[in-house]
Write a structure and sequence with these properties.
single chain, about 450 residues, alpha/beta, Aspartate Aminotransferase, domain 2, Aspartate Aminotransferase, domain 1, eight-stranded mixed sheet, four-stranded antiparallel sheet, 13 helices, about 15% strand, flat
Length: about 450
């Protein structure tokens, strides 16, 4: 008797689990020989089983797993709507672009309007501002939170200011009380870039629930992964519809892929200068993109979501362990500090080399890398010093002194859930070798 498709599918899933156990045998950590990564995916057979399960559907674009992920992730983040996209960078692009919709009337962002942000961060928090013909207004950051110096917000304001777009740097929430009060006072949009901060809270409330829009990333370095992927979050159904339009080619139609006539009047619309009854599936209300993720990506995310709470707790615990281990090294480093009132789900452990330290940052990271301890800089440093941004139209508040300090003195090491206690112990030992002068025997 031939087997049914469901029986074969069950057998495939069992084989996938067996394959994972044979092919992904964890290696023991060997200090000095094994690497200590800054980030990476943490998964077991369930992610691969769910991925294969999705592939067996033969439905290669957004589908049932995407719908499940959006619903479950929105619940985790405490928002009404989550819209899956193909990357965190695309999430930022869709979130900012949707605010240029003519349907927003006087609150619409138009070319030449200003958006307050910081230069000490990742490019794709800023890029959508430039790509939409808007003017970024750069404000300095504070040390050691690495977030916006909110005392400069009033100086950043002009009669063209329409929005604030900021990231919670390395998972550390920015001063949401001050930023949200400022935005409400001046009727500004707020976009929270939470790509590094899933699970962080501010005064007991999850990041991503404060702004009009928020974004997340599911790149392998982030809190959960789909390989590639991201989300736009909002509490507003009206904004959700705009994000969907910009994500899905700019269309006016809101039918899910493979569906038709959700509105019940597909051939009864009269929009623009099109003839009456033009097929609503091919009416475009915005100049949009195709930023959708595949259902196979979403399937991996569905499996990862089951681990997310544990991942967040592991990051927090690793931060506490490493900060305690390095607490006696403040002659060399400025140690990181959470924003007042926050409980960060840390993306990484930032360290600033003290001014006047006997070692330069390059010496320190060169030593750590030689010991197989991976390091990263705080992303673009001062983006205005980067080649791509040399000639952009922008406005700068003050001298960005701390931003330049970040560019020259700050780096970070890993805290992700794959970092074990033995790895933290090894990192602490190597840092203390540095402090004792064992590592580098001369001044910078």
């Amino acid at each position: 008797m031939s087997k049914s498709a469901s029986q074969i599918r069950d057998e495939i899933r069992a084989l996938v689990k067996e394959y994972h156990e044979a092919a992904f045998i964890p290696a023991a950590f060997v200090p000095g020989s094994s690497s200590v990564p800054v980030s990476g995916k943490v998964f077991d057979s369930s992610e691969i089983e769910t991925l294969v399960d999705a592939s067996l559907d033969g439905w290669l674009t957004t589908g049932r797993f995407a719908a499940q992920f959006e619903s479950e992730f929105a619940a985790f983040m405490g928002v009404r709507c989550a819209l899956l996209v193909n990357s965190g960078s695309s999430a930022n692009l869709a979130a900012l672009s949707c605010l240029t919709s003519p349907s927003l009337g006087d609150r619409r962002l138009s070319a030449g309007d200003e958006v307050i942000t910081v230069a000490a961060g990742f490019p794709t928090t800023v890029n959508p501002i430039i790509q939409n013909g808007l003017i970024p207004v750069f404000v300095d950051v504070q040390i050691p939170t690495y977030n916006i110096d909110a005392s400069q917000l009033d100086a950043a304001l002009s009669n063209r200011t329409k929005a604030v777009m900021l990231a919670h740097t390395l998972g550390n929430p920015f001063d949401l009380d001050t930023v949200m009060h400022f935005a409400a006072k001046h009727n500004l949009w707020v976009i929270e870039d939470c790509c590094d901060a899933v699970g962080s809270t501010y005064k007991g409330r999850g990041v991503g629930t404060f702004g009009h829009l928020a974004t997340t990333s599911f790149y392998p370095a982030h809190h959960i992964t789909m390989g590639e992927g991201g989300c736009v979050l909002t509490q507003s159904p009206a904004i959700k519809k705009l994000v969907e339009s910009f994500r899905d080619w700019g269309r006016d139609c809101w039918c899910d892929p493979g569906k038709s006539n959700t509105c019940g009047c597909r051939f009864e619309w009269k929009l623009g200068d099109l003839p009456a009854g033009y097929d609503h599936k091919y009416i475009y209300s915005h100049i949009g993109y195709n930023l959708k993720a595949t259902d196979m990506q979403a399937a991996v995310g569905v499996a990862q979501l089951k681990k997310l709470s544990g991942f967040v707790e592991a990051r927090k615990a690793n931060f506490v362990k490493l900060r305690e281990a390095l607490s006696d090294m403040q002659d060399i480093f400025i140690l990181p500090a959470p924003t007042a009132g926050s409980d960060p789900s840390w993306f990484g452990f930032p360290l600033a080399v003290q001014p006047g330290s006997q070692f330069s940052r390059n010496q320190i990271i060169g030593f750590l890398e030689s010991k197989n301890i991976a390091t990263r800089l705080l992303f673009g440093g001062n983006l205005l010093r980067q080649p791509a941004y040399k000639n952009i139209q922008c406005r700068v508040v003050g001298g960005l002194t701390n931003t330049d300090f970040v560019m020259n003195n700050v780096f970070w090491v890993g805290l992700y859930p794959g970092i074990s206690q033995s790895m933290i112990d090894y990192m602490a030992e190597m840092f203390h070798q540095l402090q004792k002068g064992v590592a580098i025997g001369h001044k910078a």
